[in-house]
């Protein structure tokens, strides 16, 4: 397959998953191979939720809507335009995927295939239902992809390069195990927001999306706030209030109750509103149902602090306080060229 054929295949996939939106699932008779795949994918979505209660129908649909927006011919062409793909040097690229949010490894999967390589996928046990089915759809609409997509639960052996995502502990294992192979190894990262006290209610409502989407489980979810001394959190809590039904999700509620009990027994100072706790803490990664915060005295000093700790940070949300800031409410809407950890996956794949 040439590059345009690969793009066309993913455009068809984007049209297919576009039927499963947050506004409801609606079958479009004009979508390629819909009679074969539509009901089956509905079933896979239900199975994904049964297997992992964090993967609600709403959050799965949210992830699918994001990908359907990205998988169009113009966006895909813009993404790949700067690169040169040598289709005669196809390699086998292994991907070890995380499973914290639905289809979290899809960008790597897309990147490998769009680059003309073979992909060997080892999925997390938390997210095993959706991607294999979408791969079958791809193979049906683009038969030349058959034989280029492999899913495995076995030990990885026959591969030329690897992209692996995990915790800081598993990353050390990956670095040892895959030494000698071209690799991208991703570790824990979290996202932060810098507030000045001048944010509007609309902006703070948008920030609540960055905090609560996927229950805060993604690396692009805001888990920490930097606020000026004497910051008044009343407006912040007001902006979050529309997310209060989240406490009705039993796994989230259990985490809220457990962490609250731990904090109270430890006599930590907390602010909370019945569905979220905020705690002063210098760490970047906060538990579920908790946001850490830290005061700053000077924005320039804070900017330097963020640069120093860049390896721990995925996104910085602010009103232009830092270079490459993400707008409020936009952390879960990255463009195809917004690479995880700022490592250009396509550039890596064109050089192996």
Automatic annotation (TrEMBL):
<dbReference type="Pfam" id="PF05893">
    <property type="entry name" value="LuxC"/>
</dbReference>
<dbReference type="InterPro" id="IPR008670">
    <property type="entry name" value="CoA_reduct_LuxC"/>
</dbReference>
<dbReference type="GO" id="GO:0008218">
    <property type="term" value="P:bioluminescence"/>
</dbReference>
<keyword id="KW-0521">NADP</keyword>
<dbReference type="InterPro" id="IPR016161">
    <property type="entry name" value="Ald_DH/histidinol_DH"/>
</dbReference>
<dbReference type="GO" id="GO:0003995">
    <property type="term" value="F:acyl-CoA dehydrogenase activity"/>
</dbReference>
<protein>
    <submittedName>
        <fullName>Acyl-CoA reductase</fullName>
    </submittedName>
</protein>
